[in-house]
Amino acid sequence: METDTLLLWVLLLWVPGSTGDIVLTQSPALAVSLGQRATISCRASQSVSTSSYNLMHWYQQKPGEQPKLLIYDASNLASGIPVRFSGSGSGTDFTLTINPVQADDIATYYCQQSRELPP
């Protein structure tokens, strides 16, 4: 693997709920060259949108650190997060985009829904 290639790790996240668990499935790990665009997808087993909000959020976690909120409500950039991070989607299909990818972006990325919360 070349030194200018990063692995962006993504995973399957299961969030239990009170009725009809919502399962979130993310795209597999990505190998991305520096300066290129990285796109990570997240699909929910049922809609996580309401009439007013898309209740999907994205986090970045680096080794030894707490998860950091990147995007909330599908497309809103959290405070202090660079504009090269963006989110989109509604219903069941959501995307996190990093453009351009930088060396500091090596991390694990999680999607998280808040449509249905654990009891």
Summarize the structure.
This protein has no helices and eleven strands. With 119 residues, it is mainly beta.
What does this structure look like?
With 119 residues, the chain is an all-beta fold. The protein has a single domain, classed as Immunoglobulin-like (Sandwich), CATH 2.60.40.10. It is built from no helices and eleven strands. Strand 9 and strand 10 form a beta hairpin. The protein is globular.
Question: How is this fold's topology laid out?
Answer:
Layout lengths: L4 E6 L2 E3 L6 E5 L3 E4 L4 E7 L11 E6 L6 E5 L3 E2 L7 E6 L2 E6 L9 E6 L6
Parallel strand pairs: 1-11
Antiparallel strand pairs: 1-4, 2-3, 3-5, 5-10, 6-7, 6-11, 7-8, 9-10
Determine Rg (CA atoms, Å).
14 Å
Q: What separation lies between the terminal Cα atoms?
A: 44 Å
Number of separate domains = 1
Strand content: over 45%
What does the main sheet amount to? 6 strands, mixed
What would the principal axes of the Cα set say about the shape? globular
Please name the fourth-level CATH homologous superfamily.
Immunoglobulins
Quickly list its features.
119 residues; mainly beta; Immunoglobulin-like; 6-stranded mixed sheet; 5-stranded antiparallel sheet; globular; disordered N terminus
